[in-house]
């Protein structure tokens, strides 16, 4: 199976954040995007990928070099990784075979795109329909580092699936706990509201009872006052 070049949007080799050579088959803006990605190369990773908006962004990091590519999401991640490793092999072979002091100087203190001339044919060659560069999903026939890297990806994928299952399980458990907490919170709120209503009702009853008692006291006082007026025939008791 030959590679479909339409699935390869952008590839570059960089030393730290300096791009040594690049291949851009889709959009000139991808070069600027790649620079931003290289500025944020993930630390403590040898392989890192992220798929979003139909594109897969992959880093293959062998400090101080970074092999970075932007691919169509239809291209499987092992294929993306294998392609970046093929570029690494070609670049390493080119450096090892060249004893030129100028080459070593460029590599030691690189300028932007200082290896573009040498690596442009490499990019084109690797994306051509050559059977020796075809990708298989089996590690058989790959070099040792390729085999180990692909096995690493597969192990990571398996671990990722297990992690997703754990997240689903614990996510559901946490969801149930959260719902229980919400129910408990609602119950507490209901108790608080109910207690508040009972308190308001008690205050209302207390006020009503106080008014009744005061009314009775007032009536009793009025009755005694009338009796006193009747006994004393008005205010004669006071006058005498």
UniProtKB/TrEMBL annotation:
Ranges annotated as spanning the membrane: 210-231
InterPro entries per the UniProt record, alphabetical: Longin-like_dom_sf, PHYL
SUPFAM superfamilies on file: SNARE-like
Presence of keyword Transmembrane helix: yes
Keywords annotated in UniProt: Membrane, Transmembrane, Transmembrane helix
Keyword Transcription regulation carried by entry: no
GO cellular component, one term: membrane
Classification via PANTHER family: PHYTOLONGIN PHYL1.2 (PTHR47461), PHYTOLONGIN PHYL2.2 (PTHR47461:SF3)
Name the record gives this protein: Longin domain-containing protein
Organism: Cynara cardunculus var. scolymus
């Amino acid at each position: 199976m030959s590679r479909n070049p339409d699935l390869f949007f952008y590839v570059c080799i960089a030393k730290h954040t300096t791009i040594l050579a690049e291949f851009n088959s889709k959009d000139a803006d991808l070069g600027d995007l790649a620079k931003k990605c290289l500025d944020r190369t993930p630390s403590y990773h040898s392989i890192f990928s992220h798929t979003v908006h139909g594109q897969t962004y992959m880093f293959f990091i062998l400090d101080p070099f970074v092999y970075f590519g932007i691919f169509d999401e239809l291209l499987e991640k092992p294929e993306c990784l294998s392609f970046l490793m093929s570029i690494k092999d070609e670049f390493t072979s080119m450096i090892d075979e060249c004893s030129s002091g100028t080459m070593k100087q460029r590599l030691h203190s690189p300028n932007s795109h200082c290896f573009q001339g040498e690596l442009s044919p490499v990019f084109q060659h690797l994306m051509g329909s050559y059977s020796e560069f075809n990708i298989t999903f089996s590690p058989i026939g790959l070099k040792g580092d390729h085999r180990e890297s692909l096995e690493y990806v597969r192990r990571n994928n398996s671990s990722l699936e297990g992690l997703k299952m754990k997240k689903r399980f614990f996510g559901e458990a946490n969801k149930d706990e959260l719902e229980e907490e919400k129910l408990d919170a609602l119950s507490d709120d209901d108790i608080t509201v109910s207690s508040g209503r009972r308190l308001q009702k008690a205050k209302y009853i207390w006020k009503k009872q106080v008014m009744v008692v005061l009314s009775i006291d007032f009536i009793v006082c009025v009755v005694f006052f009338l009796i006193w007026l009747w006994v004393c025939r008005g205010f004669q008791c006071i006058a005498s």
